[in-house]
Amino acid sequence: MCRHLARIGGPIAAGDVTARGAHSLARQAHAPRFMRGTGTLNVDGYGVAWGGGDGWRSYRRAMPPWADPSGETVLGAITAPAVMAVVRGATTGMPLSESACAPFISDGWAFSHNGYATGWPGSLEPLAAEIPLADLMTLEASVDSAVLWAWLRHRLRSDEDPAALLPELVARVAEAAPGSRMNLLLSDGTHILATAWGHSLAWWRDGGEIVVASEPTDDAPGWQWLPDGHLLIARPDRVETIAIPSTASPPP
């Protein structure tokens, strides 16, 4: 499992995004309040991506944020209007490495997957068959999230609508692999798209700032939950929610 967060607004230190709030992402790594499914710890790695109009850059480590002696120094020196951050709880049998930690970045996008695909790797073979061979041969890690990202990135390169691609991806995996948890997070630095499918997801907006997170990072008023089985399209000035069409249902 994982906990993830994306934020767009005025420039902010990348490290502040993981540490901000009484229930910050760093705290959620060891004491989440709304974790579903098995496991409560997300200490197998973390990553932070930051960007804007010139694309994304990232910092990833195969350890929890508080165990990284360089993270606070590096991330505290970086400011950006858009940040995505993730703490990772590795699925049993999947590698513990920096390359397996989200966010995955490419082509102006940052991506994270909170959850898992049941029946891995066989359940994702139909999706993998649609990914160019060169992309499969250069996956960052042998994990379900990297395959989901490779499929999504390939379709995004064809200028397909991400608001249509995320529900398609969730529905296809949910129908082929019942019980999968598919909370996806995608951003191009100007807006955030996210799905709630088998995990919690909340959002908060104030003025020119929007935050989308696995769970609220504090007890401030204004946090709203995204209903399970829905897509969120969020910008600093507006938020839209859409039901994900699927013959499957999110796991409890």
UniProtKB/TrEMBL annotation:
EC number(s) recorded for this UniProt protein: 3.5.1.118
Class of the enzyme per the UniProt entry, highest EC level: hydrolase
GO molecular function: hydrolase activity, acting on carbon-nitrogen (but not peptide) bonds, in linear amides
Matches recorded under CDD domains: YafJ (cd01908)
GO biological process, one term: ergothioneine biosynthetic process
Entry annotated with the keyword Hydrolase: yes
Taxonomic superkingdom: Bacteria
SUPFAM superfamilies linked: N-terminal nucleophile aminohydrolases (Ntn hydrolases)
Domain Glutamine amidotransferase type-2 stretches: 2-252
Pfam families linked: GATase_4
UniProtKB keywords: Glutamine amidotransferase, Hydrolase
Pathway it works in: Amino-acid biosynthesis; ergothioneine biosynthesis
Catalysed reactions, semicolon-separated: gamma-L-glutamyl-hercynylcysteine S-oxide + H2O = S-(hercyn-2-yl)-L-cysteine S-oxide + L-glutamate
InterPro entries noted in UniProt: EgtC, EgtC-like, EgtC_Actinobacteria, Gamma-glu_amide_hydrolase, GATase_2_dom, Ntn_hydrolases_N
Record function comment: Catalyzes the hydrolysis of the gamma-glutamyl amide bond of hercynyl-gamma-L-glutamyl-L-cysteine sulfoxide to produce hercynylcysteine sulfoxide, a step in the biosynthesis pathway of ergothioneine.
Name of the protein in question: Gamma-glutamyl-hercynylcysteine sulfoxide hydrolase
Source organism of this protein record: Lolliginicoccus lacisalsi
